[in-house]
């Protein structure tokens, strides 16, 4: 049974420039800070950065993998605190994601809801703040 303090299996994902191209095509966000080093650095960034919503989606994957279905997620929100800089190489940027159950409650429909605090880090620094998901879990 899910309990407060349970840790979700960690997830390590690499984000490459090819991933940024695919995400731009799917989302329609073709802002050049996501593909041009020249534009990104002229905007004061350290280099090309991943789309914030892509980073959020990757962190959300930790929860959906753990829950077994995206349909179990009742709410999910984050604040973007730091960019993920994606180098122009084959390795890309490593994003390390972890999560911990910080609360269990029951909603009006009688579902048990686990509150999950998510940590997403790039180069040892947190890139998402206040990353919280509420997930329906079995009552076992």
Order of helices and strands: EHHHEEEEE
Helix content: 10-25%
- Mean pLDDT comes to 97
Number of helices: 3
In the CATH hierarchy, the architecture of the domain at 7-15 and 51-137 is: Roll
Global outline: elongated
Poorly predicted regions: none
Family: Belongs to the enoyl-CoA hydratase/isomerase family.
Protein name: Acyl dehydratase
Domain MaoC-like: 11-90
GO molecular function: fatty acid synthase activity
Give me a quick take on this structure:
With 140 residues, the protein is an alpha+beta fold.
Describe the structure using short key phrases.
single chain; 140 residues; alpha+beta; Thiol Ester Dehydrase, Chain A; six-stranded antiparallel sheet; 3 helices; Fatty_acid_synthase
Q: What do you see in this structure?
A:
One of its GO terms (cellular component) is fatty acid synthase complex. InterPro entries: Fatty_acid_synthase, HotDog_dom_sf, MaoC-like_dom. One of its GO terms (molecular function) is fatty acid synthase activity. The structure is a single chain. The chain is of the alpha+beta class. The chain has a domain at 7-15 and 51-137: Hotdog Thioesterase (Thiol Ester Dehydrase, Chain A). Helix content is 24%, strand content 39%. The protein is built from three helices and six strands, in the order βαααβββββ. Strands 1, 2, 3, 4, 5 and 6 form a six-stranded antiparallel β-sheet that branches. The mean pLDDT is 97.
């Amino acid at each position: 049974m899910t309990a407060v303090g349970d840790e979700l299996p960690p997830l390590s994902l690499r984000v490459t420039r090819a991933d940024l191209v695919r995400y731009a095509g799917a989302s329609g966000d073709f802002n050049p800070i996501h593909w041009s080093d020249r534009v990104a650095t002229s905007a004061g960034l350290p280099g090309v950065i991943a789309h914030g919503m892509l980073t959020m989606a990757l962190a959300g994957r930790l929860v959906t993998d753990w829950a077994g279905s995206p349909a179990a997620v009742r709410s999910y929100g984050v604040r973007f605190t730091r960019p993920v800089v994606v180098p122009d190489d084959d390795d890309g940027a490593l994003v390390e994601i972890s999560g911990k159950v910080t609360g269990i409650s029951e909603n009006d429909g009688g579902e048990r809801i686990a509150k999950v605090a998510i940590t997403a880090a790039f180069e040892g620094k947190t890139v998402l703040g206040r990353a919280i998901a509420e997930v329906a879990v079995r009552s076992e």
